[in-house]
Structure prediction request, 321 residues.
Amino acid sequence: MAAVIGAAALPSGSGPAGAEPGAIAGASVVTVPLHQGPVQTDHLGASKYLKDHPDAAPQGANDFGCKPSAEHPRPVVLAHGTDSSAYSDWAALSPQLKDAGFCVFALNYGGKAGKTSYGTEDIWASSAQVGEFVDQVLAATGAAQVDIVGFSQGASVTRYWINKLGGAPKVGQWVGVASPSYGGVMYGLVPVAYAAPFIFTVVEIATSTAAIQQAADSPYIKALNAGGDTVPGVRYTTLGSRVDEMIQPFDNIALKGAGATNLVLQNLCPDDLTGHFHMVYDPFVLRTVVNTLDPEHAVAPVCTPVQLGTGIKEVVEAAHS
Prediction:
């Protein structure tokens, strides 16, 4: 089963606390999946499993009886990307974190009623939803803080909550995988759309509200980084790829503020040409994330060649399966 933990219904022309005026109105569904699914090696495998198990949780996640150990005192909260879900993006990382001794939690945020995919609705509301979930995790586990790993949009909504909605005291470490820190050009459509704004409406029909809100120089991205892209007390790490298909220039992934470490996959493993979509299933990336969260027990990741474009076919098939 999946527990519905809340829904954000925004009146016209308003948003959550701290949101930009004029945030898109609407209802956004949030659930916590509880059915433990198997480990997956790509998005397509996860998508096929989700067809018959829509309430699937990544293995090891959402055990609200889990109590953090002295060795790993902060639970890890995982936030998925756009048009995805907790299981689709975290079916490989969650079990690794659980095996490493962490309590792990993952929500489905920003959903549309009647749909099975998440992270498609108003991103301002999704940022607030993440904070509500973290509060539930802290209450259940008795922990003082969490660590957060966000993929793509998940990196933005969690960082917005940390930096702008008062979440910083509740977070020890934030890790952004393929983080659109300064937005993306979305296959080159964004520069064209700024020249002809009606294109935003056309593109939105084919994608989602949340996708458009993450464009480079969008109001959300500007608000996210206004006054500095980090705040004191939180350790920030980005892990990006030079060949990210969605975030170009890839420098838009990096943070500029104090307390930020920016890792580039190809600087660590030159022959690994994983791009945006496959980052959450790339073994080198996953090991690097675990090491970042648990440096005292770090295991050197194995660098093996990965072909350019790996994972794109699976994502496309998953979207149409």
